[in-house]
Design a protein that fits this description.
Blueprint: H1 2-20, E1 23-24, E2 27-28, H2 29-37, H3 44-48, E3 52-57, E4 66-69, E5 74-79, H4 85-110, H5 115-131
Parallel strand pairs: 3-5
Antiparallel strand pairs: 1-2, 4-5
Helix pairs in contact: 2-4, 4-5
Length: 148
């Protein structure tokens, strides 16, 4: 019986640690991810695919801040000490824009940093900043459209 109790405690600790992975600066990033998917630019057919966000913790700033996998509708964002919340919001929006652009324009035209992605990203950042001024993305989204 003592072994079962110990096993339950270990499982509870692992579950708690898994929950804490998504908390950054006191904000649950899963809720931010859900809210971002409800932006007007995000199509309903994309939401039906139930895209997934994963987080990865680093001890210092990594080379890439995020990554999107188009075929599995999944993104990964990087977290490290000193990362500002507004930069994190911008990164999540950037990766979401990759998935949404592929959903709208198809894999051939939507992937990468082509004009379709830039337009989608600009629209998402503008909508996010308008609807959530308490948590704005820092990057001015119009810089992407210059020269595109």
């Amino acid at each position: 019986q003592r072994q079962r109790e110990t096993q339950k405690k270990v499982i509870a600790r692992k579950r708690e640690k898994a929950e804490q992975r998504f908390i950054w600066d006191g904000i649950d990033l899963r809720m931010v991810w859900q809210t971002m998917q409800e932006l007007p630019k995000v199509p309903a057919k994309f939401r039906a695919l139930k895209p997934v966000m994963n987080v990865r913790h680093y001890k210092r700033a990594p080379r890439t801040w995020g990554h999107a996998w188009y075929l599995s509708n999944e993104i990964q964002v990087s977290l490290w000490p000193g990362l500002a919340l507004d930069s994190l919001i911008d990164t999540i929006l950037h990766e979401l824009a990759h998935l949404v652009a592929v959903s709208i324009y198809g894999l051939a035209d939507g992937r990468g940093h082509k004009h379709s992605f830039k337009r989608t990203y600009t629209d998402l950042v503008d909508q996010w900043n308008a609807l959530h001024p308490e948590m704005p993305a820092t990057r001015d989204s119009r810089w992407y459209l210059k020269g595109a």
